[in-house]
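Pasting as-is:
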Amino acid sequence: MFKYFENLVDPYCQYEETNRPPQRLWPFMKGYMRPFHKVFWMAGIMSVVVAAVEIWLIYYMGRLVDLLAKDPATMWADHGLEVILVAIFILLLRPFLQAIDVLLLNNAILPNFGTLIRWRAHKHVLRQSVGWFENDFAGRIANRIMQTPPAAGEAVFQVFDAIAFSLAYIIGAAFLLSDADPRLMLPLVIWFGLYMLLVRWTMRRVGPASKAASDARSQVTGRVVDAYTNIHSVKLFAHDDRELNYAREAIEHTRNTFQTEMRIYTVMDVVLVFLNGLLIVGVVGWALWLWMQGQASVGAVVAATALTLRLNAMTGWIMWALTSFFRQLGVVAEGMETIAQPIDLVDTPAAKPLEMSEGRITINGLSHHFGRKTGGLDQISLSIEPGEKIGLVGRSGAGKSTLIKLLLRFYDAESGCIFLDGQDISQVTQDSLRNQIGMVQQDSSLLHRSVRDNILYGRPDASEEEVVEAARKAEAHDFIMDLQDPNGRRGYDAHVGERGVKLSGGQRQRITLARVILKDAPILLLDEATSALDSEVEAAIQETLYGMMEGKTVIAIAHRLSTIAQMDRIIVLDYGRIVEEGTHGQLLAQGGLYARFWERQSGGFINADEAAE
């Protein structure tokens, strides 16, 4: 039975993806609700049915009191079967109806609705560009992905569990009181009007207050995760107190926003108790007066009393349900600031997979300043022949990394074009482009998974033998076999920690090299590929690197000029422009910027702060 309800909706069903999700709350939620339409209708109907049963039970208790006024023998003879049938209904049919109601809510809607939102939100965020991630805290993004689905699920739950049920209950209560005496509806109507004014007052304040509190919590998460992610820097500079103060500002802001939210609930609770007192005195008092006038039976008084006491108990729950509903919508609205952001770096509608045959790279008039007037690249034109090995040199900020990011299409160039084998990279699919490029970065972060999984990231369908062979070529196999994580996993099964923190910089770099070796892409980008290696290991890997370069088009960034001195051609960038190019010997003979870099090396590194003449 559980499986049937749990499988009424597939949270991973196909849907039409959009690069620009709705920016308003209701259209945003509506897209996620579409697969649940039938289940929502069923849940709404069952909420009304359950409320009707509850009202009928109160009505029947009043009727039973009136029946008790008769002679016991006569009462049982005339109504015994009726009482037995009611008992059977209460024992069997009522639990069955209640079970259908809670199965729809707890098993069909709640788990699947949250899963569907989390899956689609994560999928949408993963499609964002690298630049988008660089403009936010990873912790805050993750927090919004995690807190939005349960908030949306809770809002939907309250619609059916409380709001639909309570509306049906109040309407049923009005009919029940009018059946006893239409005048009993008057205090109920007056109370309901005052109650709705209180609801309106509360809702208008809870939504914004909840969003502010949710924003504040996300800020705390972002700051805390930022400190944990950079814990080595925190400890290295002995800045525990500084990080505590930085977090305390956000935590205190969270406390203040939460206090504001709680003040609203306190006012709501006090006013609600007063209104419920009016309801009890108005309905029960009027029922007693009607009874004393002989215009209402004892059963009617009992039913009216039971109904008002039940409403008294329910109103607090209803109000909390409504505030929870709007509070959760506030959380969803805050999450939309991340989940509903448009994707600007997209494949064109006519984009086709990149087809590589030679590996020629052509760059025409390429400029990119990241929206500023300075920095980045300025009118770069360059042609790299198939199989040519290019060294890229320049001071920090000269534009080397920008060129690499544009080649990978992490950003769309502000002007100019890049062609691979005659194909404009802006007109091919991003995945097919990056599948043809292997890259080893200076920051060799790894996934918090096993060593095997990290190497297989280069080519997921590779065999175990190919994984081991790639690790051997990267001089990584021996240290991998000695690894053991805290859970006792060894060798290639050992997990490396967040960003590979359990390994040394050289070990991380060698696993990264193994991953790129396994990928075996026709274009190879090296960004300080051996910077984290000691001299002995670097010497051993150099031969492997040169082997990796065979038959590939290579662009290598290096401050250690000795690592690129053997390249076919060296490009010198300065202030975003190509200022020199040629072989190592030619550039030395020119006596220009590259020659000065070479002369001023200390331990083989560029003096990156040298001022240009």
